[in-house]
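Note to self: the last two entries modelled the partners one at a time, which told us nothing about the interface. This time every component goes in together.
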Amino acid sequence: MAKVILINSFEVPQAKEDECPAFWERAAEYMRRQPGFVSTKLHRAVISGAGFHFVNVAEWESPEHFQKAVEKEEFNDLVAPYMNVFPHYPGLYEVIRT
Amino acid sequence: MAKVILINSFEVPQAKEDECPAFWERAAEYMRRQPGFVSTKLHRAVISGAGFHFVNVAEWESPEHFQKAVEKEEFNDLVAPYMNVFPHYPGLYEVIRT
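The predicted structure of the combined assembly is written out below.
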């Protein structure tokens, strides 16, 4: 299957905005070690108060590679403390128009 | 100011999924004619039923260029019929980590 784009939008309480990049760093360090990982970029809203203050956009070789990476216990242990602090809306996408 | 990334996530009812790319084409045609436009990509969810079935990711020379583009009457006339059909969550971002 073709490459896929993960787009994951985060709702981050203003008081926790400094914590999000640090959490992203730890998750990115894990992801870079996984088979099929291509790249990842953390986006921060230019204007404070946006619905989603942070958005992660990552590229993976296939949906299966991404799925395997997030199913591992190491990853679950890593993200568990943040699951409720940062409500997030991940999806896997393909580019259909440019 | 530096380049900015527009990330706009769309909630699209399943029955309207075919209409979204056609709407995007019309909006993209308008955007390409505006000063400061750099690029735009329409992403479609790989798996049906994702929270956001489509995500537009576009690059602009500055927030001011984007703001001017969406304030014009021509753009408002273009998108008005779709505002309630496709609830959407736009934000302007900068890349802070790669």
